[in-house]
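Sorry to interrupt, but I need a hand with the structure work. Could you write out one complete protein record for me, on any chain you like? Just paste the record in under my message, thanks.

. . .
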Amino acid sequence: MPRLPYSASSRAFSHLAQIHPELTAFRRDLHANPELGFEEKYTAARVSEALRLCGVDEVHQGIGKTGVVGVIRGHKHGSGRMIGLRADMDALPITEQGNCSWRSGKQGLMHACGHDGHTAMLVGAARYLAESRNFDGTAVLIFQPGEEGYAGAREMIQDGLFDRFPVQSIYAMHNWPAMRQGMIGVNPGAMMAAADRIQINISGKGGHGAHPYQTNDVVLASAHLITAMQSIVSRNVRAIDAAVISICALQSGDLGAFSVTPGTATLVGTVRTFNPDVQNLVERRLGELCQALGLAFGVNAQLQYERSYPATINTPEDAIFAGDVAADLVGEALVVRNMDPSMGAEDFSFMLQQKPGAYLRLGQAVGDDIIPLHNNRYDFNDDVLPLGAALHAGIIERGMPLALV
């Protein structure tokens, strides 16, 4: 068994380190066979097969379209406790540029966010928990589809996830390339921002570029609107609050028609916030700017504001508990308990709206060459597979301890 480049201490970790090669092979198979949200048929089948081989008590398929749930009962059930662990399974529509032997076998698809690793870690935890059953209660292992923009967590909830498996608390983790391997991060409050999609359709009057006075120029109006949007955060949002407004695409006119002023323009972007009051403020001010733009430039600007994912907010008590489990595993010095929130978004937020729990980050960086998430050269660091699986197992064992006799 190869020596891992970090230290950790627990019975679960020692057991999982021995099956590290098997977890690695499983993860790399998933990496080579990526699937988009709600298309995870191969992944779900592999997970279901692995859970059955692990000896879990129940395997439920097709929850939230392609979701899978495994149920493991401990040596005792008198506590009545039920804790959920969640991993996401889907990939991204990105063409992989890495040259590993397990690179994606599907053109235009790759596991650029490490969900293959998350799935493998939870399968590893399932194997250990099913073999040891050193807890009093029921562990519910949730393999979720469609995290990358499809709101798969919400789909599973609407399909009766928590009605069928009424967990008292729920936990998830995400690999974090910016944090050194062997470290674990958590925060007793916000971990990820709310993600909203905005689209602004501007219509005016097109014409000849040589005679702009005969037109209502939507390109000029778009430029002024993009600039004005940046004043919302700098002049309307308190400095101690966080918000981001980004216009990520602008389409107007034809690149081959250099002297034609177009009559329409479309802007697409995102708004990120943590506080619902700030979210409401940004939406209101964007609408007011669009109305004012029409008056100023003689155009019509219609805002479409779509609230996609809510903010991911940890329950303080559960974040502290998860930090304690992490400290038992890697030592207090390697646990970041006040990790900075990210302006990225995560649909585990839907589960945390329903149940108390916590979302953690698992460091995986090696050296200074950090390849970020959603990069076409990203790959999950297999060395942290036993650590993540042991962290999952520790949450179950410490959260539902067997009574001493």
DSSP finds eleven helices and 16 strands in the chain. Residues 6 and 182 are 6 Å apart (CA to CA). The mean pLDDT is 96.
